[in-house]
What we know:
This protein is α/β, with parallel strands linked by helices. Helices cover 33% and strands 21% of the residues. The chain has one domain (24-223): 3-Layer(aba) Sandwich (Rossmann fold), CATH 3.40.50.
Amino acid sequence: MPVGGSAVRRSSVTFKARRRGLSPARQARFTEWLAHWGLDETGPVIDWSIEFGAALPVVLDIGFGHGESISQTARADPATAIVGLEIHTPGVATLLEAIDTHGLTNVRVVHGDALVFLDRVAPSSLAGVRIWFPDPWPKVRQHHRRLVDVEVVHALTDRLTIGGTLHLATDVADYAAVMQKACNADERLSGSVIERPTFRPMTRFERRGIDEGRHATDLWYARER
């Protein structure tokens, strides 16, 4: 565990198991891509300036799905480093292919559990964390599996620089309320609900929600101390 940064462990996972695999040819490419652009889920604390070869601001993107948002934001802002975390192999493969295709040297990918990987992230080392449309676990009996809670927000805030930002988005109203309550519980954070920012790309998941009558709530907080 990194000194000064709280760790989070749970008895149940915060993501849904999806079992679609890769073809043998794509698996071979996946292994090759991950060797170039991947970071291990476990290991020593990472020095971002060494990893990226420069002192870039680093943003952690947790649960990136198929990676459209990372691909778009990384191309729009090459001066910011993005570390994406996702557990589902096909989505990771899609992002790795985009990194390879577009030469996105400012992106790294973790194929694993974000809560485990946090042990590799030093306190006060991130310019931002974003969690856009995490698994909603809609049934009441599943709510304990939701990623964003007081403990996770505290651990993420530990790793933000002063002035670093936490950007959350969901189209599930009760989850948005839980997220806001968790952020408000950390006295180091200041922020609230904001209008949907134009810089947040529209993903297939958000479009599906809109088609089904749901609309996103964006929460924006900054670490003040």
